[in-house]
Amino acid sequence: MTIPLTALPVAGIDRLSVNSKSDVSGRTQEVSMAKGYWVSVYPAISDPESLTAYNKLARPAVQAGGGRTLSRGGRVVAHEAGITQRVVLVEFDSFELAVAAYESEAYQKALVALPDGVQRDFRIVEGID
């Protein structure tokens, strides 16, 4: 994600952006932020239908946080110690947004609805670019 530079009405400051950096001339440049990803792997789901309540709450919470679901329970080919059960991949414009979405009140309510019969390995990871 590239954050646009904006003019500020402050004497001596021409432009500023979140995560900006200055070049050798002192001018501020735009800086790209690495995307953030939620990676969920479900080693065991005793009752797939029981995920319905969680999904009804989680989907709008993720969208409100800027998340885009890239993969949800599709085909998986596992190698080595991989797990072929359900895998979910969600992309955010930054790692910070991914963390904030997880910590949001709306997503915390969704987690309460996650059924007891579901084992989940969940990670928030930072992309390279």
In order across it, which strands form the biggest sheet? Answer: 6-7-5-8
Give the helix proportion (percent range).
Answer: 10-25%
- Rg (CA only): 19 Å
Work out the oligomeric state of the chains in this entry. Answer: single chain
Q: Treating each run of at least 4 consecutive H or I residues as one helix, how many helices?
A: 3
In total, the number of strands is: 8
Uncertain segments are 1-20
Estimate the strand proportion.
25-35%
The helix/strand class is alpha+beta
Distance N to C terminus: 8 Å
Q: Could you tell me the mean pLDDT?
A: 81
The biggest sheet amounts to: 4 strands, antiparallel
Order of helices and strands: EEEEEHEEHHE
Shape: globular
Describe this structure in words.
By secondary structure, this protein is α+β, with helices and mostly antiparallel strands. Helices cover 23% and strands 33% of the residues. It has helices spanning 52-64, 95-103, 105-112, and strands at 6-10, 13-16, 21-22, 28-29, 36-45, 68-72, 87-92, 118-126. Strands 6-7-5-8 form a 4-stranded antiparallel β-sheet, covered by helices on one side. β3 (21-22) and β4 form a beta hairpin. The longest helix has 13 residues, at 52-64. The chain starts with 5 loop residues before the first strand and ends with a strand.
Topology:
Elements: E1 6-10, E2 13-16, E3 21-22, E4 28-29, E5 36-45, H1 52-64, E6 68-72, E7 87-92, H2 95-103, H3 105-112, E8 118-126
Helix pairs in contact: 1-3
